[in-house]
Amino acid sequence: xxxxxxxxxxxxxxxxxxxxxxxxxxxxxxxxxxxxxxxxxxxxxxxxxxxxxxxxxxxxxxxxxxxxxxxxxxxxxxxxxxxxxxxxxxxxxxxxxxxxxxxxxxxxxxxxxxxxxxxxxxxxxxxxxxxxxxxxxxxxxxxxxxxxxxxxx
Amino acid sequence: xxxxxxxxxxxxxxxxxxxxxxxxxxxxxxxxxxxxxxxxxxxxxxxxxxxxxxxxxxxxxxxxxxxxxxxxxxxxxxxxxxxxxxxxxxxxxxxxxxxxxxxxxxxxxxxxxxxxxxxxxxxxxxxxxxxxxxxxxxxxxxxxxxxxxxxxxxxxxxxxxxxxxxxxxxxxxxxxxxxxxxxxx
Amino acid sequence: xxxxxxxxxxxxxxxxxxxxxxxxxxxxxxxxxxxxxxxxxxxxxxxxxxxxxxxxxxxxxxxxxxxxxxxxxxxxxxxxxxxxxxxxxxxxxxxxxxxxxxxxxxxxxxxxxxxxxxxxxxxxxxxxxxxxxxxxxxxxxxxxxxxxxxxxxxxxxxxxxxxxxxxxxxxxxxxxxxxxxxxxxxxxxxxxxxxxxxxxxxxxxxxxxxxxxxxxxxxxxxxxxxxxxxxxxxxxxxxxxxxxxxxxxxxxxxxxxxxxxxxxxxxxxxxxxxxxxxxxxxxxxxxxxxxxxxxxxxxxxxxxxxxxxxxxxxxxxxxxxxxxxxxxxxxxxxxxxxxxxxxxxxxxxxxxxxxxxxxxxxxxxxxxxxxxxxxxxxxxxxxxxxxxxxxxxxxxxxxxxxxxxxxxxxxxxxxxxxxxxxxxxxxxxxxxxxxxxxxxxxxxxxxxxxxxxxxxxxxxxxxxxxxxxxxxxxxxxxxxxxxxxxxxxxxxxxxxxxxxxxxxxxxxxxxxxxxxxxxxxxxxxxxxxxxxxxxxxxxxxxxxxxxxxxxxxxxxxxxxxxxxxxxxxxxxxxxxxxxxxxxxxxxxxxxxxxxxxxxxxxxxxxxxxxxxxxxxxxxxxxxxxxxxxxxxxxxxxxxxxxxxxxxxxxxxxxxxxxxxxxxxxxxxxxxxxxxxxxxxxxxxxxxxxxxxxxxxxxxxxxxxxxxxxxxxxxxxxxxxxxxxxxxxxxxxxxxxxxxxxxxxxxxxxxxxxxxxxxxxxxxxxx
Lengths: 153, 185, 766
Hints:
The complex is a heterotrimer of chains A (153), B (185) and C (766).
Chain A: E1 2-7, E2 10-15, H1 22-29, E3 48-51, E4 54-57, E5 70-72, H2 84-91, H3 101-114, H4 120-126, H5 137-147
Parallel strand pairs in A: 1-5
Antiparallel strand pairs in A: 1-2, 3-4, 3-5
Helix pairs in contact in A: 2-5
Chain B: H1 22-37, H2 40-43, E1 53-54, E2 59-60, E3 73-74, E4 77-78, H3 79-82, H4 113-121, H5 131-140, H6 142-145, H7 161-173
Antiparallel strand pairs in B: 1-2, 3-4
Helix pairs in contact in B: 1-4, 1-7, 5-7
Chain C: E1 5-8, E2 27-30, E3 61-64, E4 67-69, E5 75-79, H1 92-100, E6 107-111, H2 128-155, E7 162-165, E8 168-171, E9 176-179, H3 180-188, H4 218-223, E10 238-243, E11 251-256, H5 258-261, E12 266-272, E13 286-291, H6 294-302, E14 305-309, H7 318-330, E15 334-339, H8 342-348, E16 351-359, E17 371-377, E18 380-385, H9 390-401, E19 408-412, H10 426-438, E20 442-445, H11 448-453, E21 461-469, E22 475-483, E23 515-521, H12 537-555, H13 559-567, E24 572-573, H14 576-579, E25 596-597, H15 598-611, E26 622-631, E27 634-644, E28 650-660, H16 667-686, E29 692-693, E30 696-697, E31 716-721, H17 739-751
Parallel strand pairs in C: 5-6, 10-20, 18-19, 22-23, 28-31
Antiparallel strand pairs in C: 1-2, 3-4, 4-5, 7-8, 8-9, 10-13, 11-14, 12-13, 15-23, 16-21, 17-18, 17-20, 21-22, 24-25, 26-27, 27-28, 29-30
Domain 2Fe-2S ferredoxin-type (chain A): 1-77
InterPro entries (chain A): 2Fe-2S-bd, 2Fe-2S-bd_dom_sf, 2Fe-2S_ferredoxin-like_sf, 2Fe-2S_ferredoxin-type, 2Fe2S_fd_BS, Beta-grasp_dom_sf, Diverse_Oxidoreductases
Keywords (chain A): 2Fe-2S, Iron, Iron-sulfur, Metal-binding, Oxidoreductase
């Protein structure tokens, strides 16, 4: 089945199983490997991307759902890696192994779209689906606030 | 005097014909329907707080989610961030169209059958529905119907959606009476 | 240690690294890396064997395999240890650059392939900085010495009058300077100086060491361009997903692949060889489905029909095994530590306290499950993998394929977390076998379920501690019995912890008790046991620190005071005799250089209790717990603040951690490791546990193998690094062991419930 998706602003046509999760379409078919596989069951958030601006877990989102819609991945979060969240992430040295961070950033970006000045609780609630085994949570919270122009604790 | 049924079955509406008093029959029909309303497959997403439940022991949903202002989650954790229009293949994530949490006014968890009954009949707490619309919703809504095809190893709600719809219809036809506070199925 | 350096003939390290330039490079490894680690997994240095050992015609300075100075001034530094989140690429090369006198802005860092020419590359044991600190400085100093020599020769002055800094060599008397690039070609023609002729800089000349350093790979991590193992894509590559048995040692009786092969995109179905005990780095066996994409391979696997022979481990049951371990520590084991006469002292004690502690199997669960890519063709093999141990990967691949190691190249990608899981080469065995059989490049992708169910598990354990107290409550006798299936069981017929195993928090426990006895008790393995971040220290620190807290409460005294009392006065133990043991592997370092320093352990306890206002520990609604532990030659103390949330759940809301790791290179990464240790330890304390039934793991994914989420991790983590000039200790692991006992002790202070078994969620709502 032919599926048309706008990925990071570029129109793409894919001839794949319509049930193929968006994650594998991105990674295996389109070569966009910034979006990560962590659990395959929407439990860890490593695969988070935006579908028409809303976060979805790409590992359980069939590609057919994206047909005729726009998908933004970490590669398209900003043209030059200079999204305020990306800058804050680097400035505060958030990543350790880095594997979960694309998902964390995509979730945080969706949060800031809706809540430009989130509280700690709002950050925790919005990022509750994103696991980090290295344990970067305290810096993630601080970086979201920094990107939001809020002073840290 | 009602026929015995297993926990996974629902009695047919006709079985309630043995109850001659119409009011009593209506109440009994509601108690039968409450086995579905209060089954975790259904009540889990009619929670009494900000988070839905999962599994069968009123465990809070994990990952931790919030109902949000429109009962559809919050930024980054929308219900449909994970739940699709059908159960996910090769993943346990359940899905059905319009996946969301019932509004707080329609909370069932922790309620008695009578309380659920009164809620259902109260347009202020049932989404402004007529009884006919409630029958229709229960009998045909696809999200309601998920309760009988929950996927993975989940225990479905008792009976079938068709029979559940028929019981709710029979309850309405018999006057939509509510059982007593103490009554349990 | 410098006299143990071996210099290899000049060669470039660049051949395998796609660099357009060449330069000066010196081969260099140290026999210090022959560390006597408890896991017996270290391999000694061997002559260089890879294609990288070939001479290159590229110009410039190549004093060793780690450094290259190009004629344009670009300094390339090789990071030979794997980057798995500890920030090694932002740390180790800085040492080399500082010794060299290079500007970090003109330094490029490249990742080494697996090659014994680099010495030990095993990234584990918290060993990268502590193990090779001086070696790395020497690498830079050698290159600097050659650049200085070249400049001195050109200026016809004594090298002693020249200095190197800011990417130039400077002759101060004549105010002349030459850039590193201008000197690279000439320097490259000089003989590599003997180690004795290479002088290290005084520490205060190391410009960046100990300063805030930027996170080298930060930009790549946040824009999606960092290449992890899972991200490698080769032309014509197939992706394999494997149906492994749920019980280790089980084998395929028969299978039907017809439905799997009917899935569009599925190309091949290949049976893998079943392993024989000891399992080591063999495959699990099972059936691999190879497809054009991961989704097709996953669907194909789901369509396989397999009949298994469950084998001898099918009876393994965690409930039952808990009783077996209890019984094991109920009677004497092999005595491995003896000071005074503990048995006599116990029989005469005024009061005897005893407690038994249990910690379950744990799974590493790195966010990136195991994955690897291989191409096997024309008698060569090329592997791309997120491996902590590229040389083991290379050796394993060579063995499995029957190729000489020099025909195998291992490219190390970023690791999406390691924690010990990715030291093991089982997934390498799988990928090379499949790539060979398929005749095309193959990527093996483990699912999360595979990862949770087919891991090398942290060992399940029971600890029985007995203390004899005199009339004043002072501890006069200490007996520690420990039972756990050791890591050695994965590699041979071993069913009892060894001397090497008990170095982790039992033999090196610096307590000031006159009568001490430690015993290793029998425990048979029924799963693959592996090392997980801080290894046996997890349960030894948990039991020891919990027990001392119990003693304090039994005496009705401040746990901090009792902890310090049990540790005894500040002192430095430099001999095994003082410790009452035969020998101490001491994380591969001599006791003389890294003694058991009770003063340093006391120091971190005193500091952490000061920072956390321990004296106010009984505030309304929260309680503090304390624990401290020496491991990997570093000293760490933790105070955890535990609260009960409105929903009744126990949570850790704040934590303080003080680390004395001697000299640190990159304080921000050290701080990050301590923060991460608190959260990793919180998961262990509150949530995580692997249990077995019928020989199979009962958990499958993050739904039932729970890790702390952002709202469940301490909101505030305070880290303090003790300023120190001591030799560096480990960083990646030592933060973890004291976390769980600090939390358990706080839980007791808050709730009155003494939790002797992890995770705490078994006893209390978390």
